[in-house]
Amino acid sequence: MSRKTYRPATLAIRSGHERSQFGEHSEPIFATSSFVFDSAEQAKARFSYEEPGNVYSRFTNPTLSVFQDRLAALEGGESCIGTASGMSAMLAVCMAGLSAGDHIVSSHSIFGASKVLLNSLLTSFGVEVTFVELTNLEEWSEALKSNTRMVFFETPTNPLMEVGDISAISTIAHDHNPDIRVVVDNCFCTPILQQPLKLGADVVLHSATKFIDGQGRCVGGAIVGDSEFVGEKVLGFMRTAGPSMSPFNAWVFAKGLETLSLRVNHACASALQLAEFLDGHKGIRQVNYPGLDSHPQRELVQQQQSKGGAVVSFEVEGGRDRAFSIINDTELISITANLGDSKTTITHPYTTTHARWSDHDKQAVGIGEGLIRIAVGLEDPLDIIEDLKL
């Protein structure tokens, strides 16, 4: 099926699946570790990539291919690799694209575990890391070096909802060195709201655990990009290191993509209603939501996102005590750090998602003890608002 023929909502349902000889309508789960060959010669050809086809489910599986091809179609990429988690997707990109002596530039405002991976794990392997302010394009330009091989950022950021200019950062990096890979975490927007590859990025990362699953059932990740880097180098890392996505999880994610557009758009509408309720509410210092007219980068949001997203964060007066009180008083909303679920979730980033950061690092990017993050689900938005008891 031609990817160019259909729009995203259709691609999310129809792309990727090639029916077997049984003519099934729904995608099957190929629960097998290995595959049988017609001959020793065919086995040799498959193992050496001389002939396309499945080899071993650590790195090739028909169910996984459905998910990978479907997400690649939605993101506009040539190749997609499914991984065991969102963090293993980031690790795979770094291990495939960086070597000792290389340099990566990243924004300060990223997911807690992502910063730990960059600042601790990669540096222990001899990779140099520089952190910059996401919205300061001059800092991005000044941070680039002769040995820079990758830049990384997420937009919108977790949990402050800052928005990075994908086109501008990509241009700065590629003008400095065309071989620099621009890697964008697109977890919060998904390809329904934003497509970084079309804006100049080279690689897109996803935690499929979040909106792609949509019901909090499975853990997984994905990498989308070109056929050379993603389709060969990242796949090569997967084949050797094996942070693999299981066929069952791949099936869940493939089915999740079918309803992604409906779920994300519904959650966006509810998140905007929540953000508008919170904005200017007594006792709330600041509301962070890209869909609000008051968002400092509203013009950029309108250029590269179709909607504001489903995540809202806000800073309350009274610090941790007040934040904990609001969280603990909820009855409907789930107190958990996951997001992208059909069930609305609430968390305290300072002590959960970013707990491993130093107090200095959290304060430097604006993550205070009064900050609360809500990932809006599919419930009635008025019930979500009433459950906060503000």
Question: How would the blueprint of this fold be written?
Answer:
Blueprint (H helix, E strand, L loop, with lengths): L7 H7 L25 H8 L14 H14 L3 E5 L2 H12 L5 E5 L4 H13 L3 E5 L4 H7 L4 E7 L11 H11 L4 E5 L4 H4 L9 E5 L13 E5 L3 H13 L5 H12 L1 H19 L5 E5 L9 H7 L6 E6 L2 H10 L5 E2 L9 E3 L11 H7 L5 E5 L5 H7 L3
Parallel strand pairs: 2-3, 2-4, 4-5, 5-6, 10-11
Antiparallel strand pairs: 1-7, 6-7, 8-9, 9-12, 11-12
Structure description:
By secondary structure, this protein is α/β, with parallel strands linked by helices. The strands form two sheets. A seven-stranded mixed beta sheet has the order 1-7-6-5-4-2-3, with helices on both faces. A five-stranded mixed beta sheet has the order 8-9-12-11-10. Strand 5, helix 8 and strand 6 form a beta-alpha-beta unit. The protein is globular, with a radius of gyration of 21 Å.
Helix content: 25-40%
CATH topology of the largest domain: Aspartate Aminotransferase, domain 2
CATH class bucket of the largest domain = Alpha Beta
Number of helical segments? 15
Q: Ends: how far apart?
A: 50 Å
How much of the sequence lies in strands comes to 5-15%
Q: How do the SSEs run, as a string of H and E?
A: HHHEHEHEHEHEHEEHHHEHEHEEHEH
Task: Estimate the mean pLDDT confidence.
Answer: 96
CATH superfamily of the largest domain: Type I PLP-dependent aspartate aminotransferase-like (Major domain)
Counting helices, strands and paired strands, the structural category is alpha/beta
Order of the strands making up the biggest sheet: 1-7-6-5-4-2-3
Largest sheet: 7 strands, mixed
Query: How many beta-strand segments?
Result: 12
What's the CATH architecture name of the largest domain?
3-Layer(aba) Sandwich
Whole-angstrom Rg: 21 Å
The count of domains is: 2
Low-pLDDT residue spans: none
Overall spatial form:
globular
